Hints:
heterodimer; A: globular; disordered N terminus; B: Rossmann fold
Amino acid sequence: MADTTETLPLTAEKGRFSETLERVRRSSEYVVMPILALIVSGILFSIFLFALGKSPVDFFSLVWRGGFGTSFSWQNTLARSAPLVFTALCVAIPARLGLVIIGGEGALVLGGFAAGAIAIPLIGVVPSYVLLAVMLFASMIAGGAWIGCVGALRHFRGVNETIASLLMFYIAVSILNFFVEGALRDPSDPNKPSTAPIGSENMVGFIPGTDVHWGLLVGILLCGLLYLLMNRTTFGFAAQIAGGNLRAAQAQGLPVGKLMVISCAIAGACAGLAGFFEVAAIHGKANASLIAGYGFTGILVSFLARHNPLVIVPVAIFLGGIAASGGLVQRRMDLPDATVLLLQGLIFLVLLVSETFYGRLPFFRSKGAQ
Amino acid sequence: MSKFQLNRRSLLQNSAAGILGLSAAGIAKSAFASDLTVGIVYVGPRDDFGWNQAHAVAAAALKEVPGVTVVEEESVPETIAVQKSMESMINLDGAKMIFATSFGYYKPFVLDAAAKYPDVEFRHAAPLWTDADPKNAGSYFGYLDQAHYVDGVAAGLSTTTNKLGFVAAKPIGTVLRNINSFLLGARKVNPDATVQVIFTGEWSMPVREAEAANALVEAGCDVLTCHVDGPKVVIETAEARGIKCCGHNASQAPLAPNGFITGAEYKWETIYKNFAADLAAGTVLPNFTGGGFDVDFVRSTPYGAGASEAAIAAADAARADVTAGKPIFTGPINKQDGTPLLAAGANLDNYEPSLDQTDFLVEGVIGSIT
């Protein structure tokens, strides 16, 4: 306070330097707070482990080893992160408009189903890159339309987007089951109802030298693109204003409805892509294995990344690593599989609580503003 | 301000010490020192009173074998996660033998892992292996319909309404075969008996299983059995409604102290111990192994309070017959729509391959596949 006035007579250069320092200190809040939240949840989780008579040191070293300790662990982690990047984007983009979409799993399921279904008449008829391109667009359109509907329902009918997207997940699962166990079922597989396999020669391959499919790289590129869209374009700026104050945005003449529907459609298309890669890179066909919870873990990723598309990538890798180590923890420490879910839940809870501390800790407060 | 910095510094110091401690612990962790490490992957919790528990009971028995270490992982979904879990067991635990116990694990995950790790033996719990698949992969299966037949005999003598109820998951080959065998058992001792079946459409859907069980009781059924992953809900509902029941997969006797008759149980431990012994002896493992009472792969749950003297005597006799190879499918048998399946005097062997692909219900079963 006093020192700001004192620096005035000094050189302008020094003033600019302390200004930058000040800005860094203030914006560091967005980095320090999530890390603090992680540490606090780690401590709470350690207390839980102590109560069970297990050693937290063992636990965290196993998490390290299972998730990041060896090159195999890294591949395991990255393979699990890929779908999370897409489903996290499904939460992050509408979040700029203040919309909380938690039904990305539904768009993933439908996107995967659309990819598997549209492939049926094309398998063996068209070259594999055409087949994959058609599947890719089908999945994006299906996912985009699905979450786009959520945005439209919100704008035109005032339906709460959180509830709508969650309930629509159940509809998506029913649609998948209806067709996969009925009209589109592959008769050659009597036991696991699925669409016809696209064939290993048509599948999306792995990044050379790894067993991680190309979806991860696509996801990272998409995060970059969507970061630019949301932060460096008029569309993103308008979305941010609408998210900050809907009435004010309307008063400014911003097309709020259009923004909402388009953002939701982009979000749904991202989740649909996750479904595409599940079908085209992993299963080779659409079936109930699409419902694996990636859409729901994506919510956690996005919140942990504070809905910033660039931060989503490291956070998805972090949570993918926790998931990857879950098996090792189970096997070595004789803990139930729910243990890592509990850790994830604790992280989410502490993170939500930490949200209430923003702007309240004196260290991050601007001196000048006081 | 300075006080805060001091805290922060000490915090950093502490966490640095923590990280050092963690990595030291990670290095100190050595591999298991034993002759054979077996990895077992389950799709659900190990205490589900059903499919997974049946495998977990066998895993516990396998642990008793000297020189065998068992590592287990539960609730592993039928996605890339299962392949990573198996690889993690191989890479981080040194597993030389993997049992993948859920149907959807096989294609593509077990096949891919088997191709990638030719030195590791993979066995999968469903009759899916073909000559085209890797030689270090294979299938093992218990023909549970033999035990359902014995259940049917006991149930046929336990009903007063002549209506038996069957809660079934999906209308696929193995499930339909169990329903048919249950009816044939009941008809053997009680020609008026019918089996009313309700399909829930999912392997594990407790709410719908409870609704189905209640609906069957309302329809006049006085003995219930089921083919779902976890029969707990069906058995508990039957007990609560004051009727009798037969179990499935594992022992549910503790859930129904009044009405439990007997149950159809897998005895995977026979298979697991056979495999472990073969590996220890250095003999080549069979790619397919399957059987019923005759090779001790299935068993009947010990009789509960719901079993009458007559039912026990008839069920014991039926089990002795099946063990001796007497066929379950003895003509005349019609399909549900009245078309003949077997003429009088004709019969099907209990291991007749076409029964694996059962796509019909026999006359006397009420309910539709579609």
